Amino acid sequence: MVISRENAFALLKQYVNSSNLLKHVLAVEASMIGYAKKFEEDIEIWASCGLLHDIDFEKYPEEHPFKGVQILLENGYPEDFILAIKGHADESTARETLMAKTLYAVDGLSSFIIACALVRPDKLEGMKVKSVKKKLKDKAFARAVNREGILQSADELGVDMTEHIQTVIDAIVNREEELGKIGLSMLS
């Protein structure tokens, strides 16, 4: 099977109607693209992994991520791809591959950075690591985001937190510009 972002997005749209979930997976896709470039990995595969990681969440929240695994198996996705998606949920499986560790590391942080952008007058423009770190310390802000998970996942990936936040900011900024050209956004 040839994995492409185009095919992944078409499959995603069969299962996801929620605009908020779509924005989340687009943000995770952006972060996966940023790390694929950084680690010199296949951008199409990593982008597709980011898009499809929550394919089952809207329709089958109680079975997440296991129903997603089933959907991906039925659609011919390879085992390492599926294991990365399965591994983004803490309790489901060990994360052994770089793609699996990266997906786990960018999932919560991507959402958090979007939340930070939404409360800024300039949105993503000029966002600094320092301001994201300050918001991470504010437990009342984006209360649902698992801060310990963000820290743990960066350690598991083996990246410095400052560098990790900057990589995700840069990836989201770059991807938001590209998405705007095709009528999509992580912010609106």
Can you tell me about this structure?
By secondary structure, the protein is mostly helical. The protein has a single domain (5-180), classed as Hypothetical protein af1432 (Orthogonal Bundle). The protein is 64% helix and 0% strand. It contains 9 helices and no strands. It has helices at residues 5-15, 19-39, 43-52, 66-74, 79-86, 98-118, 129-137, 147-157, 161-180. The longest helix has 21 residues, at 19-39. It is globular, with a radius of gyration of 15 Å. It starts with a helix and ends in an 8-residue tail after the last helix. The mean pLDDT is 94.
Distance between the termini: 33 Å
Number of helices: 9
Q: What is the architecture at the second tier of CATH?
A: Orthogonal Bundle
Structural class: mainly alpha
Under CATH at level 1, the class stands as Mainly Alpha
How helical, in percent, are the residues?
A: 55-70%
Total count of domains:
1
Largest sheet: none
In total, how many beta strands? 0
Might you state the CATH topology name? Hypothetical protein af1432
- Helix-strand pattern, N to C? HHHHHHHHH
Rg over CA atoms, rounded to whole Å, is 15 Å
